[in-house]
Amino acid sequence: MGTTSKFEKHVEAREAVQLLNSEAHSADELMRRITELLNRVMLKYNWVGFYMLEPNAQPPVLVLGHYQGAMTPHTRISLNQGICGAAASSGKTVVVDDVSKDSRYLACSLETKSEIVVPIFVHGEVAGELDIDSHFPAAFGTREDRDLVEYCAELVGSRLDRETAKTT
Ligand code: SME
């Protein structure tokens, strides 16, 4: 009764992200506003944040960027740690329906039940990722959720591609 259907919600969120992309003056602004928007409009997206690979770091390390939600102890994550490390090192979206059953999981909040991490590609290589945690189990199990989060990651990747265009 009176609730927006799942499909409409995802379509609306996608349109709002499209609008953000046209308004944002930089990839950095786009990332900040995506975290705010997704956290606000998607009820189960309780922690939304970006981790970006530190330029020229050896060994590579993911560094926390813009985020919305509870403070996390994980501000720097190696590629061999966590769901975040798994997504960045494989270059593939990782969806975990029950984090308590995944030995890779690094706890951010005791309330977190499920997680999605989507890599961001810049010039064909992983440059970072969009990480979302939910207080609800299997919050990212549907095609609509995966498509929405992957769409956001692609937009950020395209912006970063343009901002870091090779001049040679
Ligand atoms: N859960 C992540 C760590 C980041 S926090 O969720 C914000 C992981 O397992 O890599």
Number of helices: 4
The coarse silhouette is globular
From the N-terminal CA to the C-terminal CA, the straight-line distance is 58 Å
Tell me about the biggest sheet? 6 strands, antiparallel
Walk me through this protein's architecture.
The protein is of the alpha+beta class and 168 residues long. The chain is 38% helix and 24% strand. It contains four helices and six strands; from the N terminus they run H-H-E-E-E-H-E-E-E-H. It has helices at residues 6-23, 27-41, 82-90, 143-163, and strands spanning 47-53, 61-68, 76-78, 94-96, 114-122, 125-134. It has a six-stranded antiparallel beta sheet, with helices on both faces. A hairpin with a 2-residue loop joins strand 5 (114-122) and strand 6 (125-134). Helix 2 runs antiparallel to helix 4. The longest helix is centred in the C-terminal third of the chain and has 21 residues, at 143-163. It is globular. The mean pLDDT is 94. It binds methionine sulfoxide. Residues 47, 49, 72, 74, 77, 82-84, 105-106, 108, 115, 131, 133 line the site of methionine sulfoxide.
